[in-house]
Amino acid sequence: MSESHESKTCQNLQSAFAGESMANRKYLYFAKVARQLGNEEIARLFEETAHQETGHAFAHLELIYPPDELTVEKILEIAIEGELYETNQMYPEFERTARQEGKEAAVAEFQEQAEESRQHAEMFEQAAKRFKALTLVEAFHAKRYQKALDSL
Ligand SMILES: [Fe+2]
Ligand SMILES: [Fe+2]
Q1: Residues 57 and 91 in one domain
Q2: Nearest CA to 44 among 56, 52, 53, 32?
Q3: The domain boundary residue, chosen from 25, 50, 70
Q4: pLDDT tens digit string along 62-73?
Q5: What ligand has the least distance to the C-alpha of 121?
Q6: Selected residue with higher pLDDT from 141 and 56
Q7: What CATH number is attached to the domain comprising 117?
Q8: Ion ligand 2 contact residues with beta carbon within 5 A
Q9: Closest ligand (CA of 122)
């Protein structure tokens, strides 16, 4: 289901995942606000509900990206793709619109976050390279070990 976004259900899963994810972050933010406003009980209610929203979001993710189809390479690749989309497409477009509309705070935030997305992409790319190198080293060691075993 992860590869094709053709079916309506795939699109609905993406939307449901987005909604549950937003609810999670929104409720954590509301918990912080409630705490600042001095209402600990409401803060805790929002935090507990936020954790449940994470469970809901994860349930959708398991259908979008079935765990048995994933590898370390694959998840890094998906993450890099997302971060690059943000830094190269999404934020530049949002920034342009914010500038046209004279929303200076949004312009600054979009610029800042485009840069952070670029850093995230880079970090994941480096991790992917390290992982690949490590896999090669491990394969090398396994081969040498096997040779040693064979010569016994
Ligand atoms: Fe939910
Ligand atoms: Fe990011």
Answers
A1: no
A2: 32
A3: 70
A4: 999 999 999 999
A5: 2
A6: 56
A7: 1.20.1260.10
A8: 117, 120
A9: 2
